[in-house]
Amino acid sequence: MKIVGISGSNVGSKTRTAMDYTLKLANEKYPDAEITLLDLAEYEMVFSDGRNYWEYEGDTKYVTETIMAADAIIIGTPVFQASIPATLKNIFDLLPVNAFRDKVVSIVVTAGTAKHYLMVEQQLKPILAYMKAHIVQTYVFIEEKDFHRKEIINDDIIFRMERLVEDTVLLVRAYSDIRQAKDAEYDF
């Protein structure tokens, strides 16, 4: 199973901290999984210009192909101006409409205030649904008060991350079993 974590901003440290925690938990619980972190701050991404994702070069090609090869994607995103960051939106623009078909996508959000939870419900989930993702409905929402010196200090957040990782993997397995059963119905 290939799990790709995306730290969806090129600035700040909280989202990366949250993704590091989440993927560490995934590594501990599922050591056989191939887990990759794509921190968008570490890549030189070009803006989408309408080409197919495999026609790009360099970091853009690597990031998009890594996402397309994943079974599960854990998106970590901060909330900027009550919206997703442009770097994350660009990723969605680089990928095809059906990019997340047969993929499970879960979400970790960092925000300055609890009022920003609506961004996930009104912006991020509709984009993921449009791109055909199987979305883990519960997500981890981490506020400013849950961090101290680049560490997560709220144990409840860690428990929710553990559950998110478990739900993500269980959904990947469930959808895989469903696809195999459906494929077995055909005689060829």
From TrEMBL:
The cross-references to PANTHER family, in alphabetical order and at most eight, read: FMN REDUCTASE (NADPH) (PTHR43408:SF2)
Source taxonomy: Bacteria, Bacillati, Bacillota, Bacilli, Bacillales
Domain NADPH-dependent FMN reductase-like per the UniProt entry, residue ranges: 1-143
What InterPro entries does the record tag this protein with? Flavoprotein-like_sf, FMN_Rdtase-like_dom, NAD(P)H-dep_FMN_reductase
Pfam families recorded: FMN_red
Q: Which UniProt keywords apply?
A: Flavoprotein, FMN, Oxidoreductase
Q: Which organism is it from?
A: Peribacillus loiseleuriae
Tagged with keyword Flavoprotein = yes
Listed GO MF terms:
oxidoreductase activity
What's the protein called, per UniProt? FMN reductase
Q: Which domain of life is it from?
A: Bacteria
* Cell inner membrane listed as a keyword: no
